[in-house]
RNA sequence: AGAGGGUUGGCAGAGUGGUCGAAUGCGGCGGUCUUGAAAACCGUUGUACCGUGAGGUACCGGGGGUUCGAAUCCCUCACCCUCUACCA
């Protein structure tokens, strides 16, 4: 979240950022926060003062007791009762103000980077690059759900029986391809310097808050009510939270991690006709890359991460485009996000397979993730992450784009991982 | 899941109602000595907030309570360890 000091010093920037995001009432929201913060300060000053007085008296009582001056001690005790009542009132008022501020700050989104185009929806995202050509496939190219049936790669109905809609069962070569992608993506991330981790896929509330899923996106996550835990919607959550409440040395930056996890999303209300097959699932698999970096490096690193994701797409021979998300489509916590979309020949549409973002200090502030510079000064770090990559839509694109009369050709780079070169 | 024990500063580890933000040791940083290093010695070394500043406040796993005063007493929650039970 944004720091109060930042809002104080750069009120205009914050308001402009909120306006860019089409926030309903930027000025009043920010003004209210600033007034309440002023309120907080004066309450705390007064409270500190009262506490100091009580501490002073207590110290005197201790001395009097030791000297055996009981009467004077009793007299001193009586002086504190009024103070204590006052303290209680101040504390309550302070807590109220702090609760308000915490709540308000938690609901202020990150400020979009200056390069983020203004826009209302995904219609307004900016296409920053378009790589490759649509595959030369006959007009009757099948969508992947037909191919999946034809070659018996995934059983959606079976998943529905075992769990429910959106929980597919991968079978045979379908399952093998999943494993191939996992190893291929992890190996590539490893080569790019990311240290592999295998994190928990259930996280507690503090972790959900740290990366910004809570409280904003509570409804998107599956919750284990009995344990107060959430199934992760992305490995970003457990991996970034490795660094919650951590102060790193500047020399330890950047920290680079990758990890494979299943991801769980309720996708409440978004189930519709055009989400057939692998297009949208409640459970899917993904390799995620995460970096913790110095602020001055974060935009260079964002490009580096984007290049890594693109190299994967190129290795797989997929036709793709890169979008710079507009302010209306930009995630709550992100300052700048690139979405990578692959073209799926059977559906003739673009499928998002990666979202790569710079959160600047937004997550770090919630996480209390800092680093010490040479002069021992502490600063919030910048956090970034990206999908590299999400499996289901990659699989969908591979199936649709590589279909031939003989069968589905497997991209060369995956062949050593899955052990076959065609599905027929 | 049952019984018991525990959670203190970067680490180890004292501290059971007042002068304790906290002994001591190790580690870190600065210095003396040395050609240099080691050893020795001296000093220093937590975090957050309020205050222009001097300074103040809070924090000994989290929350609450008793008290003029809590690391220390009480309640509660979380986590860790040991034994038993179970289990991949």
Question: Helices, strands, pairings?
Answer:
Blueprint lengths: L3 H6 L1 H10 L5 H41 L3 H37 L19 E6 L12 H8 L2 E2 H7 L6 E2 L1 H20 L3 E2 L5 E3 H6 L12 E2 L4 E3 L4 H5 L6 E3 L5 E10 L18 E11 L4 H18 L4 E5 L11 E9 L4 E12 L1 H6 L2 E3 L5 E3 L1 E9 H11 L1 E2 L2 E3 L5 H4 L3 E2 L1
Parallel strand pairs: 4-9, 8-14
Antiparallel strand pairs: 1-11, 2-3, 5-7, 6-7, 9-10, 10-16, 11-12, 12-13, 13-16, 14-15, 17-18, 18-19
The structure holds one RNA strand of 88 nucleotides.
Describe the structure.
The protein folds into two domains: 4-106, Helix Hairpins (Orthogonal Bundle), CATH 1.10.287.40; 122-423, BirA Bifunctional Protein, domain 2 (2-Layer Sandwich). Helices cover 42% and strands 22% of the residues. It has 13 helices and 19 strands. Strands 1-11-12-13-16-10-9-4 form an eight-stranded mixed sheet. Strands 5-7-6 form a three-stranded antiparallel sheet. Strands 8-14-15 form a three-stranded mixed sheet, with no helix packed on it. The longest helix has 41 residues, at 26-66. The chain is elongated and about 100 Å long. The mean pLDDT is 91. The structure holds one RNA strand of 88 nucleotides.
Uncertain runs are none
CATH superfamily of the largest domain: Bira Bifunctional Protein, Domain 2
Compute the number of strand runs: 19
Q: Per DSSP, what share of the residues sits in E-state strands of 2 or more residues?
A: 15-25%
Quickly give the structural class: alpha+beta
Tally of separate domains: 2
Tell me the CATH architecture of the largest domain.
Answer: 2-Layer Sandwich
Average pLDDT confidence is 91
